[in-house]
Amino acid sequence: MSKLLEAIQENRKSILQDWTQRLRSVDRRRDLLDDRELDTDAGNVLSAIADVPAGTTLEDFSAVGWQPLKELLTNLSVSRAAKGFSPSETAIFVFSLKPSLFTLARQQWGKDAGELFLEISAINEFVDKLALHTTDSYIHGRDQVIARQQEEMLELSTPVVTLWEGIVALPLIGTLDSARTQVVMESLLQAIVQTNSRFAIIDITGVPTVDTLVAQHLLKTITAARLMGAECILSGIRPQIAQTIVHLGINLEDVITKSKLADAFRLALERSGRKVVRVDKANSASTTNPRVI
Amino acid sequence: MERIPILRMGNYLLVTIQVDMHDKLALTLQDDLTNRITEANAKGVLIDISSLEIVDSFIGRTLANIASMARVLDAETVVVGMQPAVAITLVELGMSLPGIRTALNVESGMEYLRETVADHEESDGYIGDSAED
Questions:
Q1: B36-93 confidence digits (pLDDT tens)
Q2: Facing B82 at nearest CB: one of A185, A196, A227
Q3: Does this complex have an ipTM over 0.85?
Q4: For the purposes of burial, counting CB atoms within 10 Å of the CB of A68, is it exposed (0-12), middle (13-18) or buried (19 or more)?
Q5: How far apart are CA A83 and CA A89, in angstroms?
Q6: Which chain A residues touch B92 with a CB distance below 8 Å?
Q7: Which fold has domain B6-132?
Q8: pTM of this structure
Q9: Which chain B residues touch A196 with a CB distance below 8 Å?
Q10: Which of these, A253, A257, A213, lies nearest to A234 by C-alpha position?
Q11: Domain covering A161-292, topology
Q12: What would the CATH number be for the domain defined by A3-154?
Protein backbone atom coordinates (compact mmCIF):
# COMPACT_ATOMS: atom_id res chain seq x y z
CA MET A 1 0.00 0.00 0.00
CA SER A 2 1.26 3.42 -0.89
CA LYS A 3 2.27 5.90 1.74
CA LEU A 4 -0.44 8.26 0.59
CA LEU A 5 -3.26 5.75 1.16
CA GLU A 6 -1.85 4.99 4.62
CA ALA A 7 -1.81 8.70 5.39
CA ILE A 8 -5.40 9.03 4.21
CA GLN A 9 -6.48 6.16 6.46
CA GLU A 10 -4.74 7.65 9.47
CA ASN A 11 -6.06 11.16 8.95
CA ARG A 12 -9.51 10.40 7.54
CA LYS A 13 -11.28 12.38 10.26
CA SER A 14 -9.37 15.59 9.67
CA ILE A 15 -9.63 15.18 5.88
CA LEU A 16 -13.39 14.69 6.10
CA GLN A 17 -13.74 17.76 8.30
CA ASP A 18 -11.63 19.86 5.94
CA TRP A 19 -13.52 18.54 2.88
CA THR A 20 -17.02 19.12 4.29
CA GLN A 21 -16.04 22.68 5.25
CA ARG A 22 -14.85 23.27 1.73
CA LEU A 23 -18.02 21.72 0.29
CA ARG A 24 -20.15 24.10 2.33
CA SER A 25 -18.13 27.12 1.35
CA VAL A 26 -18.21 26.51 -2.43
CA ASP A 27 -21.15 27.73 -4.41
CA ARG A 28 -23.55 24.82 -4.21
CA ARG A 29 -27.22 23.89 -4.60
CA ARG A 30 -28.60 24.25 -1.10
CA ASP A 31 -32.10 23.93 -2.59
CA LEU A 32 -31.41 20.43 -3.88
CA LEU A 33 -29.26 18.90 -1.15
CA ASP A 34 -29.06 19.74 2.56
CA ASP A 35 -25.87 19.76 4.67
CA ARG A 36 -26.55 16.42 6.31
CA GLU A 37 -26.86 14.55 3.00
CA LEU A 38 -23.78 16.33 1.72
CA ASP A 39 -21.79 15.19 4.79
CA THR A 40 -23.02 11.60 4.38
CA ASP A 41 -22.04 11.54 0.70
CA ALA A 42 -18.59 12.93 1.50
CA GLY A 43 -18.13 10.44 4.36
CA ASN A 44 -19.11 7.51 2.14
CA VAL A 45 -16.75 8.53 -0.64
CA LEU A 46 -13.85 9.06 1.74
CA SER A 47 -14.33 5.74 3.53
CA ALA A 48 -14.57 3.98 0.16
CA ILE A 49 -11.16 5.48 -0.68
CA ALA A 50 -9.64 4.74 2.74
CA ASP A 51 -11.02 1.20 3.03
CA VAL A 52 -9.71 -0.24 -0.25
CA PRO A 53 -8.11 -3.69 0.11
CA ALA A 54 -4.37 -3.72 0.70
CA GLY A 55 -2.31 -3.79 -2.47
CA THR A 56 -4.60 -1.48 -4.43
CA THR A 57 -2.81 1.54 -5.81
CA LEU A 58 -4.02 5.01 -6.65
CA GLU A 59 -2.51 4.73 -10.12
CA ASP A 60 -4.48 1.66 -11.14
CA PHE A 61 -8.06 2.89 -11.09
CA SER A 62 -9.35 -0.14 -13.05
CA ALA A 63 -8.31 -2.49 -10.19
CA VAL A 64 -10.97 -4.66 -8.51
CA GLY A 65 -10.34 -2.84 -5.22
CA TRP A 66 -11.80 0.37 -6.57
CA GLN A 67 -15.06 -1.29 -7.70
CA PRO A 68 -17.06 -0.29 -4.55
CA LEU A 69 -15.92 3.31 -4.95
CA LYS A 70 -16.90 3.32 -8.61
CA GLU A 71 -20.34 1.93 -7.81
CA LEU A 72 -20.77 4.50 -5.07
CA LEU A 73 -19.86 7.32 -7.47
CA THR A 74 -22.17 5.94 -10.17
CA ASN A 75 -25.11 5.87 -7.74
CA LEU A 76 -24.20 9.32 -6.49
CA SER A 77 -24.07 10.68 -10.02
CA VAL A 78 -27.36 9.10 -11.02
CA SER A 79 -29.21 10.19 -7.90
CA ARG A 80 -27.84 13.73 -8.18
CA ALA A 81 -28.79 13.87 -11.85
CA ALA A 82 -32.30 12.83 -10.87
CA LYS A 83 -32.38 15.63 -8.28
CA GLY A 84 -31.48 18.15 -10.98
CA PHE A 85 -27.71 18.56 -10.55
CA SER A 86 -25.70 19.26 -13.67
CA PRO A 87 -22.78 16.90 -14.37
CA SER A 88 -20.27 19.67 -13.66
CA GLU A 89 -21.77 20.28 -10.22
CA THR A 90 -21.31 16.60 -9.38
CA ALA A 91 -17.75 16.80 -10.70
CA ILE A 92 -17.06 19.88 -8.57
CA PHE A 93 -18.18 17.89 -5.52
CA VAL A 94 -15.44 15.35 -6.28
CA PHE A 95 -12.85 17.97 -7.27
CA SER A 96 -13.20 19.74 -3.93
CA LEU A 97 -11.54 16.71 -2.34
CA LYS A 98 -8.29 17.76 -4.04
CA PRO A 99 -7.29 20.71 -1.80
CA SER A 100 -7.99 18.63 1.35
CA LEU A 101 -5.68 15.91 0.11
CA PHE A 102 -3.08 18.50 -0.92
CA THR A 103 -3.13 19.87 2.64
CA LEU A 104 -2.58 16.35 3.93
CA ALA A 105 0.34 15.83 1.54
CA ARG A 106 1.95 19.06 2.66
CA GLN A 107 1.65 18.06 6.32
CA GLN A 108 3.21 14.65 5.64
CA TRP A 109 5.98 15.43 3.16
CA GLY A 110 6.32 19.19 3.46
CA LYS A 111 10.08 18.95 3.95
CA ASP A 112 10.84 16.72 0.97
CA ALA A 113 9.94 18.69 -2.19
CA GLY A 114 10.56 15.76 -4.54
CA GLU A 115 8.31 13.40 -2.57
CA LEU A 116 5.64 16.08 -2.16
CA PHE A 117 5.53 16.67 -5.91
CA LEU A 118 5.13 12.96 -6.64
CA GLU A 119 2.28 12.54 -4.17
CA ILE A 120 0.48 15.67 -5.35
CA SER A 121 0.59 14.48 -8.97
CA ALA A 122 -0.77 11.11 -7.83
CA ILE A 123 -3.64 12.81 -5.95
CA ASN A 124 -4.32 15.06 -8.89
CA GLU A 125 -4.59 12.19 -11.35
CA PHE A 126 -6.67 10.07 -8.99
CA VAL A 127 -9.26 12.74 -8.22
CA ASP A 128 -9.51 13.62 -11.92
CA LYS A 129 -10.34 10.01 -12.66
CA LEU A 130 -13.02 10.01 -9.98
CA ALA A 131 -14.61 13.15 -11.39
CA LEU A 132 -14.47 11.79 -14.94
CA HIS A 133 -16.14 8.64 -13.71
CA THR A 134 -19.09 10.61 -12.33
CA THR A 135 -19.45 12.44 -15.65
CA ASP A 136 -19.29 9.16 -17.58
CA SER A 137 -21.99 7.67 -15.38
CA TYR A 138 -24.12 10.75 -15.90
CA ILE A 139 -23.83 10.49 -19.69
CA HIS A 140 -24.42 6.76 -19.59
CA GLY A 141 -27.60 7.30 -17.56
CA ARG A 142 -28.78 9.91 -20.05
CA ASP A 143 -28.07 7.58 -22.98
CA GLN A 144 -30.21 4.92 -21.40
CA VAL A 145 -33.07 7.38 -20.95
CA ILE A 146 -32.78 8.47 -24.59
CA ALA A 147 -32.72 4.88 -25.84
CA ARG A 148 -35.76 3.99 -23.77
CA GLN A 149 -37.66 7.03 -25.00
CA GLN A 150 -36.81 6.20 -28.60
CA GLU A 151 -38.17 2.70 -28.15
CA GLU A 152 -41.33 4.01 -26.55
CA MET A 153 -41.80 6.53 -29.34
CA LEU A 154 -41.37 3.82 -31.93
CA GLU A 155 -44.11 1.79 -30.30
CA LEU A 156 -46.42 4.73 -29.84
CA SER A 157 -46.03 6.31 -33.19
CA THR A 158 -47.33 3.66 -35.55
CA PRO A 159 -50.95 2.80 -34.82
CA VAL A 160 -52.87 1.14 -37.62
CA VAL A 161 -56.54 1.96 -37.31
CA THR A 162 -59.42 0.17 -38.98
CA LEU A 163 -61.74 2.70 -40.59
CA TRP A 164 -64.19 0.24 -42.00
CA GLU A 165 -64.40 -3.41 -42.82
CA GLY A 166 -61.57 -3.94 -45.29
CA ILE A 167 -60.14 -0.41 -44.97
CA VAL A 168 -57.22 0.39 -42.67
CA ALA A 169 -55.52 3.74 -42.15
CA LEU A 170 -52.06 4.61 -40.93
CA PRO A 171 -51.80 8.19 -39.68
CA LEU A 172 -48.09 9.00 -39.65
CA ILE A 173 -46.89 11.66 -37.23
CA GLY A 174 -43.32 12.91 -36.92
CA THR A 175 -40.19 12.52 -38.96
CA LEU A 176 -39.67 9.25 -40.77
CA ASP A 177 -36.26 7.62 -40.58
CA SER A 178 -35.16 4.21 -41.78
CA ALA A 179 -35.72 2.41 -38.47
CA ARG A 180 -39.16 3.87 -38.03
CA THR A 181 -40.20 3.25 -41.61
CA GLN A 182 -39.30 -0.40 -41.17
CA VAL A 183 -41.65 -0.62 -38.17
CA VAL A 184 -44.33 1.31 -40.06
CA MET A 185 -44.04 -1.00 -43.06
CA GLU A 186 -44.17 -4.16 -40.98
CA SER A 187 -47.09 -3.08 -38.83
CA LEU A 188 -49.10 -1.93 -41.84
CA LEU A 189 -48.52 -5.15 -43.77
CA GLN A 190 -49.29 -7.20 -40.68
CA ALA A 191 -52.52 -5.27 -40.17
CA ILE A 192 -53.48 -5.84 -43.81
CA VAL A 193 -53.13 -9.60 -43.34
CA GLN A 194 -54.89 -9.64 -39.98
CA THR A 195 -57.86 -7.51 -40.96
CA ASN A 196 -58.02 -8.82 -44.51
CA SER A 197 -58.10 -5.28 -45.83
CA ARG A 198 -58.14 -4.44 -49.50
CA PHE A 199 -57.46 -0.78 -48.92
CA ALA A 200 -54.79 0.94 -46.89
CA ILE A 201 -54.69 4.71 -46.44
CA ILE A 202 -51.37 6.28 -45.45
CA ASP A 203 -51.94 9.75 -44.06
CA ILE A 204 -48.86 11.97 -43.91
CA THR A 205 -50.48 15.13 -42.53
CA GLY A 206 -48.23 14.88 -39.47
CA VAL A 207 -44.99 14.33 -41.35
CA PRO A 208 -43.08 17.62 -41.25
CA THR A 209 -40.70 17.02 -44.14
CA VAL A 210 -40.51 14.65 -47.05
CA ASP A 211 -37.12 14.11 -48.62
CA THR A 212 -36.08 11.57 -51.23
CA LEU A 213 -35.35 8.95 -48.57
CA VAL A 214 -38.75 9.29 -46.92
CA ALA A 215 -40.48 9.23 -50.29
CA GLN A 216 -38.56 6.11 -51.23
CA HIS A 217 -39.61 4.45 -47.98
CA LEU A 218 -43.24 5.38 -48.61
CA LEU A 219 -43.07 4.02 -52.15
CA LYS A 220 -41.57 0.78 -50.85
CA THR A 221 -44.39 0.39 -48.34
CA ILE A 222 -46.98 1.08 -51.02
CA THR A 223 -45.40 -1.42 -53.41
CA ALA A 224 -45.17 -4.09 -50.71
CA ALA A 225 -48.85 -3.58 -49.87
CA ARG A 226 -49.71 -3.87 -53.55
CA LEU A 227 -47.76 -7.12 -53.81
CA MET A 228 -49.89 -8.50 -51.01
CA GLY A 229 -53.04 -7.56 -52.87
CA ALA A 230 -54.01 -4.36 -51.06
CA GLU A 231 -54.38 -0.96 -52.64
CA CYS A 232 -52.66 2.01 -51.00
CA ILE A 233 -53.91 5.56 -51.01
CA LEU A 234 -51.64 8.38 -49.90
CA SER A 235 -53.36 11.30 -48.24
CA GLY A 236 -52.60 14.48 -46.35
CA ILE A 237 -49.95 15.91 -48.65
CA ARG A 238 -49.49 19.55 -47.71
CA PRO A 239 -48.77 22.22 -50.36
CA GLN A 240 -45.12 22.63 -49.36
CA ILE A 241 -44.61 18.88 -49.44
CA ALA A 242 -46.22 18.66 -52.88
CA GLN A 243 -43.75 21.32 -54.05
CA THR A 244 -40.81 19.48 -52.51
CA ILE A 245 -41.87 16.20 -54.07
CA VAL A 246 -42.03 17.73 -57.54
CA HIS A 247 -38.77 19.66 -57.10
CA LEU A 248 -36.99 16.50 -55.96
CA GLY A 249 -38.26 14.70 -59.03
CA ILE A 250 -39.97 11.94 -57.07
CA ASN A 251 -42.37 10.00 -59.22
CA LEU A 252 -45.67 9.44 -57.44
CA GLU A 253 -47.63 8.87 -60.63
CA ASP A 254 -48.37 5.23 -59.87
CA VAL A 255 -49.69 6.11 -56.43
CA ILE A 256 -53.20 7.30 -55.74
CA THR A 257 -52.92 10.57 -53.80
CA LYS A 258 -55.67 12.51 -52.10
CA SER A 259 -55.35 15.80 -50.26
CA LYS A 260 -57.40 14.78 -47.23
CA LEU A 261 -57.93 11.58 -45.31
CA ALA A 262 -61.67 12.02 -45.83
CA ASP A 263 -61.22 12.00 -49.62
CA ALA A 264 -59.09 8.89 -49.43
CA PHE A 265 -61.68 7.18 -47.24
CA ARG A 266 -64.44 8.13 -49.66
CA LEU A 267 -62.44 6.69 -52.56
CA ALA A 268 -61.78 3.45 -50.66
CA LEU A 269 -65.49 3.13 -49.89
CA GLU A 270 -66.38 3.76 -53.53
CA ARG A 271 -63.89 1.18 -54.75
CA SER A 272 -65.29 -1.39 -52.36
CA GLY A 273 -68.80 -0.70 -53.65
CA ARG A 274 -70.11 1.50 -50.84
CA LYS A 275 -71.05 5.13 -50.58
CA VAL A 276 -71.92 7.64 -47.93
CA VAL A 277 -75.39 9.16 -48.14
CA ARG A 278 -77.24 11.57 -45.92
CA VAL A 279 -80.31 10.11 -44.34
CA ASP A 280 -83.43 12.16 -44.94
CA LYS A 281 -84.60 13.40 -41.55
CA ALA A 282 -88.28 13.23 -42.46
CA ASN A 283 -88.02 9.60 -43.47
CA SER A 284 -86.09 8.29 -40.51
CA ALA A 285 -86.77 9.73 -37.12
CA SER A 286 -84.63 7.19 -35.31
CA THR A 287 -81.25 8.06 -36.80
CA THR A 288 -79.86 11.36 -37.91
CA ASN A 289 -76.32 10.28 -38.68
CA PRO A 290 -75.15 9.78 -42.22
CA ARG A 291 -74.99 6.10 -42.91
CA VAL A 292 -72.93 3.95 -45.12
CA ILE A 293 -74.90 1.52 -47.21
CA MET B 1 -39.31 -35.69 -59.37
CA GLU B 2 -40.83 -33.07 -57.11
CA ARG B 3 -43.62 -31.12 -58.77
CA ILE B 4 -46.10 -28.49 -57.74
CA PRO B 5 -49.66 -29.67 -58.43
CA ILE B 6 -51.80 -27.63 -60.83
CA LEU B 7 -55.53 -28.00 -60.21
CA ARG B 8 -58.18 -27.15 -62.74
CA MET B 9 -61.40 -25.46 -61.66
CA GLY B 10 -63.56 -24.79 -64.71
CA ASN B 11 -61.85 -22.13 -66.77
CA TYR B 12 -59.22 -21.46 -64.14
CA LEU B 13 -56.05 -23.13 -62.99
CA LEU B 14 -55.18 -23.18 -59.32
CA VAL B 15 -51.56 -23.47 -58.16
CA THR B 16 -50.78 -23.72 -54.47
CA ILE B 17 -47.14 -23.49 -53.56
CA GLN B 18 -46.69 -25.23 -50.23
CA VAL B 19 -43.01 -26.05 -50.29
CA ASP B 20 -39.97 -23.84 -50.40
CA MET B 21 -39.32 -22.99 -54.03
CA HIS B 22 -35.93 -23.80 -55.38
CA ASP B 23 -34.82 -22.73 -58.81
CA LYS B 24 -35.44 -26.02 -60.58
CA LEU B 25 -38.90 -26.37 -59.08
CA ALA B 26 -39.77 -22.87 -60.26
CA LEU B 27 -38.67 -23.67 -63.80
CA THR B 28 -40.63 -26.94 -63.76
CA LEU B 29 -43.70 -25.03 -62.62
CA GLN B 30 -43.22 -22.52 -65.42
CA ASP B 31 -43.07 -25.38 -67.95
CA ASP B 32 -46.01 -27.31 -66.52
CA LEU B 33 -48.20 -24.27 -66.13
CA THR B 34 -47.76 -22.98 -69.67
CA ASN B 35 -48.53 -26.46 -71.01
CA ARG B 36 -51.61 -26.79 -68.83
CA ILE B 37 -52.92 -23.35 -69.85
CA THR B 38 -52.88 -24.41 -73.50
CA GLU B 39 -54.27 -27.87 -72.81
CA ALA B 40 -57.09 -26.71 -70.61
CA ASN B 41 -57.72 -23.52 -72.54
CA ALA B 42 -57.65 -21.73 -69.21
CA LYS B 43 -58.72 -18.10 -68.93
CA GLY B 44 -57.29 -17.46 -65.53
CA VAL B 45 -54.45 -18.65 -63.31
CA LEU B 46 -54.42 -18.24 -59.54
CA ILE B 47 -51.14 -18.78 -57.73
CA ASP B 48 -51.43 -19.08 -53.96
CA ILE B 49 -48.13 -18.32 -52.24
CA SER B 50 -49.44 -17.93 -48.68
CA SER B 51 -47.19 -20.74 -47.45
CA LEU B 52 -44.14 -19.39 -49.22
CA GLU B 53 -41.82 -17.83 -46.66
CA ILE B 54 -38.57 -17.43 -48.54
CA VAL B 55 -38.11 -15.75 -51.91
CA ASP B 56 -35.09 -14.64 -53.83
CA SER B 57 -34.74 -12.55 -56.94
CA PHE B 58 -34.88 -15.63 -59.17
CA ILE B 59 -38.23 -16.81 -57.75
CA GLY B 60 -39.55 -13.25 -58.01
CA ARG B 61 -38.53 -13.05 -61.65
CA THR B 62 -39.97 -16.47 -62.39
CA LEU B 63 -43.32 -15.37 -60.95
CA ALA B 64 -43.23 -12.29 -63.16
CA ASN B 65 -42.30 -14.44 -66.16
CA ILE B 66 -45.13 -16.87 -65.50
CA ALA B 67 -47.58 -13.97 -65.40
CA SER B 68 -46.30 -12.55 -68.69
CA MET B 69 -46.36 -15.97 -70.36
CA ALA B 70 -49.91 -16.59 -69.16
CA ARG B 71 -50.96 -13.24 -70.57
CA VAL B 72 -49.49 -14.16 -73.95
CA LEU B 73 -51.54 -17.35 -73.75
CA ASP B 74 -54.68 -15.29 -73.02
CA ALA B 75 -54.98 -16.07 -69.31
CA GLU B 76 -55.08 -13.59 -66.43
CA THR B 77 -52.75 -14.35 -63.53
CA VAL B 78 -53.40 -13.45 -59.92
CA VAL B 79 -50.86 -14.02 -57.16
CA VAL B 80 -52.58 -14.29 -53.79
CA GLY B 81 -51.66 -14.42 -50.12
CA MET B 82 -48.17 -12.97 -50.21
CA GLN B 83 -46.71 -12.79 -46.69
CA PRO B 84 -45.57 -9.38 -45.39
CA ALA B 85 -41.97 -10.59 -45.06
CA VAL B 86 -41.98 -11.82 -48.65
CA ALA B 87 -43.44 -8.54 -49.89
CA ILE B 88 -40.79 -6.55 -47.99
CA THR B 89 -38.03 -8.78 -49.36
CA LEU B 90 -39.18 -8.37 -52.95
CA VAL B 91 -39.42 -4.61 -52.56
CA GLU B 92 -35.96 -4.44 -51.01
CA LEU B 93 -34.67 -6.50 -53.93
CA GLY B 94 -36.12 -3.83 -56.19
CA MET B 95 -38.73 -6.14 -57.69
CA SER B 96 -42.09 -4.43 -57.62
CA LEU B 97 -43.50 -6.99 -60.12
CA PRO B 98 -45.47 -4.34 -62.00
CA GLY B 99 -47.17 -6.78 -64.38
CA ILE B 100 -48.63 -9.04 -61.72
CA ARG B 101 -52.13 -8.79 -60.30
CA THR B 102 -52.30 -9.51 -56.60
CA ALA B 103 -55.05 -10.28 -54.11
CA LEU B 104 -55.21 -10.80 -50.38
CA ASN B 105 -56.53 -14.37 -50.39
CA VAL B 106 -57.83 -17.09 -52.69
CA GLU B 107 -61.37 -15.84 -52.29
CA SER B 108 -60.75 -12.29 -53.47
CA GLY B 109 -58.38 -13.61 -56.13
CA MET B 110 -61.10 -15.86 -57.57
CA GLU B 111 -63.54 -12.96 -57.39
CA TYR B 112 -61.17 -10.81 -59.40
CA LEU B 113 -60.64 -13.56 -61.99
CA ARG B 114 -64.37 -14.09 -62.40
CA GLU B 115 -64.95 -10.37 -62.86
CA THR B 116 -62.20 -9.81 -65.39
CA VAL B 117 -62.82 -12.95 -67.37
CA ALA B 118 -66.55 -12.27 -67.36
CA ASP B 119 -65.83 -8.71 -68.50
CA HIS B 120 -63.83 -10.03 -71.43
CA GLU B 121 -66.60 -12.41 -72.40
CA GLU B 122 -69.20 -9.68 -72.10
CA SER B 123 -67.21 -7.19 -74.10
CA ASP B 124 -66.56 -9.87 -76.72
CA GLY B 125 -70.27 -10.59 -76.91
CA TYR B 126 -71.32 -6.96 -77.09
CA ILE B 127 -68.99 -5.82 -79.84
CA GLY B 128 -71.71 -6.21 -82.42
CA ASP B 129 -74.35 -4.51 -80.28
CA SER B 130 -72.28 -1.49 -79.44
CA ALA B 131 -71.54 -1.00 -83.14
CA GLU B 132 -75.27 -0.81 -83.80
CA ASP B 133 -75.75 1.78 -81.04
A1: 999 988 999 999 999 988 888 898 889 889 989 998 888 989 999 999 999 999 998 8
A2: A227
A3: no
A4: middle
A5: 12
A6: 220
A7: Transcription Regulator spoIIAA (3.30.750)
A8: 0.62
A9: 104-105
A10: A257
A11: Transcription Regulator spoIIAA (3.30.750)
A12: 1.10.490.70
